[in-house]
Amino acid sequence: MKCQRLASLLLVTVVLGYLAIPCPAAEKATRPNVIYIMSDDHASHAISCYGSKINKTPNLDRLADEGMLFRNAFCTNSICGPCRAVVLTGKYSHLNGFVRNGNTFDGSQQTVAKLLQGAGYQTAMVGKWHLKSEPTGFDYWHILIGQGPYYNPPMKTPEGTVKHTGYTTDIITDAALDFLKNSRDKDKPFFLMYHHKAPHRNWQPGPKYLNLYDDVTIPEPDNLFDDYSGRGTPAGHQEMTVAKHLNANDLKLVPNRSLNDEQAAVWNKAYGPKNKAFEEANLEGDDLIRWKYQRYIKDYLRCIASVDENVGRLLDYLDESGLAKNTIVIYTSDQGFYLGDHGWFDKRFMYEESLRSPLMVRWPGHVKPGSVSEELVLNLDFAETFLDAADKEIPADMQGESLVPVLEGNTPDDWRKAVYYRYYEYPAVHMVHKHYGVRTARHKLIFFHEIDEWELFDLQKDPREMKSVYADPAYAGVVAELKTELQRLRKQYKDDDTVRGQPAKRPVRSGARSKKQ
Length: 517
Ligand code: CA
Known about the structure:
Radius of gyration: 23 Å
Mean pLDDT: 93
Bound molecules: calcium ion
Distance between the termini: 46 Å
Low-confidence stretches: 13-28, 510-517
Strand order of the largest sheet: 7-6-5-4-8-1-9-10-2-11
Shape: globular
Structural class: alpha/beta
Largest sheet: 10 strands, mixed
CATH topology of the domain at 29-205 and 292-407: Alkaline Phosphatase, subunit A
Order of helices and strands: HHEHEEHHHEEEEHEHHHEHEEEHHEEEEH
CATH architecture of the domain at 29-205 and 292-407: 3-Layer(aba) Sandwich
């Protein structure tokens, strides 16, 4: 299809050239705009087109109804900053140099924004950036500072810091719409990254949704009370349980100091009666854990209600303005999240709920409405996809694959059959051990290399990953095969345990003394 598009472009160019009309006019009509919408920590099991049992997201569902939904979209390193660096560079963390939150992104390196800018696109970045250094390669930017607050965010622009009053999810959308309506160069195609902070911890809902779900009980995941038997050390060692690690701010049991007086009055009216009832109930044990889960998940879903509403505002504008027909719209999250699954909140682990991201892509005339893909795709593929859609050459040092053929229903026979993952942050908040691993359509092999522990999951028999079968003799063949595949992927992606811009560290252990799980 890409060849056909190129041939069509060539034909149009030749004909228009014959008619003495300059080439750029033909390019302008052909190349699509791109809007990349990314939320933060939005798990796919909290989106109704993915079959959510806990909420409805009618506006996000529009993108699946009118485009393609990916059932197996994964990240390469399940943590906020690193995911963003992967999306911008099309390279794994060890090659783009941003392996953990707190790193500073080297903005002098090649990024998809710079390449699209060079190809004649107007580039814009709005919302959560979280890479410490200032954006490069963007004609327009309006970003949160660091994580940014849920209310009244100061935001950075090339002209300086701008103060805002209101709810951040609404304000980020206002900024995106302002770019589209008032700052867009109508003679160029555009590339807009529209990034929400929500529904990141600590899940502060907007004023409109503070009482949503007050009268319902959200279903609990079947493994909310996971005891971590059946897996190795890391699952039990982490510090991200609903039971013990949500603090008073997370649970809204202390005043919210980021609000102005008017906002605080609305907030206190919503939480005051709920907190009073909680105090009077004097809960303990499993009842207290269940209450914490309800408080956490309801606030998380309330934040998502605002994201859904605001994506709807953007989609409505695309329809009204006529931009929708030549604009690719992508919705994803930087990674997934545990919604009480395994008794957790947060991400980091290579287990399914945080490895997986939602991904829906609408591209009129190219993507069949209501289509579903089961292919293994990565956030590593976005940069390549944008460049391919813009008919711009993909640099040889980018490591992902363009999704354009998949989107157009022509998945190559040699599409990837396994994905490589690596997490770097330990010791650090939430105390998830460093690990790397490989996931295929059916199995997942994880190596916690600094403590020499392996885990293997049969995702067909054990989709919730409750029991590692690494030591089960019946899986010896699978283990051997996946260890070979893991080494092949490490070589393919040039992961030799060094990180770009950082000194080499001691080599990781071989795994020769591996424990049995
Ligand atoms: Ca995140």
